[in-house]
């Protein structure tokens, strides 16, 4: 190869004139063209007929170079995967702490607004606080999505059909000078996924593609079924197992991404946009959603030519069963003097929940941990109707606490809350599907509706 010739000439000059031993790797042209063959050259000086010359041994090392390149790629992917895992843990912890604080801010501002006369000049300031806290809660939700701790409600559905319907709506996000086209396979591809999270993925990738195109251009979306074999796992996707997958690709012919930037694009708050033009959470949200659903995402980009995002999601193998759609039952009015036990180790959250419930005329008992709750339940003269508990508690977690209480009180209903998603509570026992859960921060209306739903539902054993 012409690029390798200067080094070989230099080294052979050293061998001939300075009696050194040199070696060099180089590429050789193949008669059929690329890919090139790799070879290693070793040179040593000798004397033939009183004339100094160089003896050269050439060994083909193509297979060795390919194996080295694959190993290097895997090591880079593994390091990137581990880095993203660590960043995810950090982001999840930060979001958890912020969500607890935001729950208190949002709840208390709503309580104050409910008590103030609308004409009070302080109302405007308090509404601004509430608005900013709600906006901050949206950011923490995106952080939780990246950390794979977002609350998800998976359903079995045909991915290609859902993408087709979504793209028809997303066309309005795309400028008139950008063509949006899609090629989806005719075969139904069933996945078990949260439709809302699918919308998040498509929205973020389409907006990202749109902003990469200056002037006219094209965005292409493809989806089909693929088989992921052992060779694919070994060469391209840490954490992904063999099996049947749905592959979703979004390609644009925009500006592309520089090689130095590419390793960082999924990191939260990383952005190449101007200050104020983006949060840097779009692609990290997509990454978190895909990983939360046991999938894989990768990006290929070439500056000046465009970018492709490929996503693999596991196909749902079980027969698809249509969910029965039941007419909404009329909700009974909240019963006054229902006795509710609230268990929360954060004092300001505990006080907030107590204030909200008492404003709706509930009888409220409070406890900071499981032991305190059990003691209060044992000394209580009459039954507790509803347990509202954080999932993560000192001494015993909320799930274990509910199980102990339901043994003594089979009629006890439970509502769990957490600043994390139900399946991620810091290694605690997972809440199974169907158990009532509300994520912090929540509005008073959402909280009361959740209580109403639980009180009017059948008892769920945890």
Automatic annotation (TrEMBL):
Residue numbers bearing the 4-aspartylphosphate modification: 390
Record-linked Gene3D superfamilies: 1.10.287.130, 3.40.50.2300, Histidine kinase-like ATPase, C-terminal domain, PAS domain
SMART domains in alphabetical order: HATPase_c, HisKA, REC
Pfam (any one): HisKA
Catalytic reaction(s) noted: ATP + protein L-histidine = ADP + protein N-phospho-L-histidine
Lineage, opening ranks: Bacteria, Pseudomonadati, Chlorobiota, Chlorobiia, Chlorobiales
Keyword field contains Phosphoprotein: yes
Protein's UniProt keywords contain Phosphoprotein: yes
Ranges for domain Histidine kinase: 93-317
A GO MF term: phosphorelay sensor kinase activity
Keywords associated with the record: Coiled coil, Phosphoprotein
Protein EC: 2.7.13.3
Protein name per the record: histidine kinase
Coiled coil, from the record: 57-87
Ranges where the Response regulatory domain occurs: 339-455
Organism superkingdom: Bacteria
InterPro entries: CheY-like_superfamily (IPR011006), HATPase_C_sf (IPR036890), HATPase_dom (IPR003594), His_kinase_dom (IPR005467), HisK_dim/P_dom (IPR003661), HisK_dim/P_sf (IPR036097), PAS-like_dom_sf (IPR035965), Sig_transdc_His_kin-like_C (IPR004358)
């Amino acid at each position: 190869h012409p690029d390798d010739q200067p080094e070989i000439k230099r080294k052979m000059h050293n061998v001939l004139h300075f009696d050194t031993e040199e070696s060099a790797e180089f590429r050789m042209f193949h008669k059929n063209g690329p890919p090139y063959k790799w070879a290693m050259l070793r040179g040593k000086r000798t004397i033939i007929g009183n004339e100094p010359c160089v003896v050269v041994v050439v060994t083909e090392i193509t297979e060795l170079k390919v194996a080295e390149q694959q190993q290097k790629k895997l090591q880079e992917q593994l390091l990137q995967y581990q880095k993203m895992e660590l960043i995810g843990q950090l982001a999840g912890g930060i979001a958890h702490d912020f969500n607890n604080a935001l729950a208190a801010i949002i709840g208390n501002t709503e309580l104050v607004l409910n008590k103030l006369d609308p004409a009070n000049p302080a109302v405007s300031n308090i509404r601004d606080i509430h608005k900013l806290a709600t906006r901050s809660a949206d950011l923490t939700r995106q952080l939780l999505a990246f950390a794979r701790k977002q609350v998800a409600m998976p359903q079995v559905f045909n991915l290609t059909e859902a993408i087709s319907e979504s793209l028809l709506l997303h066309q309005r996000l795309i400028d008139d000078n950008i063509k949006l086209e899609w090629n989806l396979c005719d075969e139904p591809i069933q996945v078990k996924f949260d439709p809302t999270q699918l919308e998040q993925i498509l929205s973020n990738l389409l907006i990202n593609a749109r902003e990469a195109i200056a002037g006219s251009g094209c965005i292409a979306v493809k989806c089909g079924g693929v088989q992921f074999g052992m060779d694919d796992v070994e060469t391209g996707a840490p954490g992904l197992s063999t099996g049947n997958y749905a592959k979703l690709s979004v390609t644009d012919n925009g500006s592309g991404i520089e090689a130095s930037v590419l390793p960082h694009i999924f990191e939260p708050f990383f952005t190449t946009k101007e200050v104020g033009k983006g949060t840097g959470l779009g692609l990290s949200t997509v990454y978190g959603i895909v990983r939360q659903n046991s999938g894989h995402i990768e990006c290929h980009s070439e500056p000046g030519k465009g970018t492709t995002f490929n996503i693999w999601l596991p196909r749902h193998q079980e027969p698809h069963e249509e969910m029965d759609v039941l007419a909404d039952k009329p909700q009974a009015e909240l019963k006054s003097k229902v006795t509710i036990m609230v268990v929360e180790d954060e004092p300001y959250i505990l006080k907030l929940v107590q204030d909200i419930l008492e404003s709706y005329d509930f009888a409220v008992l409070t406890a900071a941990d499981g032991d305190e709750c059990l003691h209060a339940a044992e000394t209580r003269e009459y039954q507790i109707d509803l347990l509202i508990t954080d999932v993560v508690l000192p001494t015993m977690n909320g799930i274990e606490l509910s199980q102990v209480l339901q043994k003594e009180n089979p009629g006890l209903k439970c509502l769990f809350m957490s600043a994390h998603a139900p399946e991620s509570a810091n290694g605690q026992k997972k809440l199974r599907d169907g158990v009532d859960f509300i994520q912090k921060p929540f509005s008073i209306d959402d909280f009361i509706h959740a209580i109403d739903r639980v009180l009017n539902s059948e008892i769920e054993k945890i």
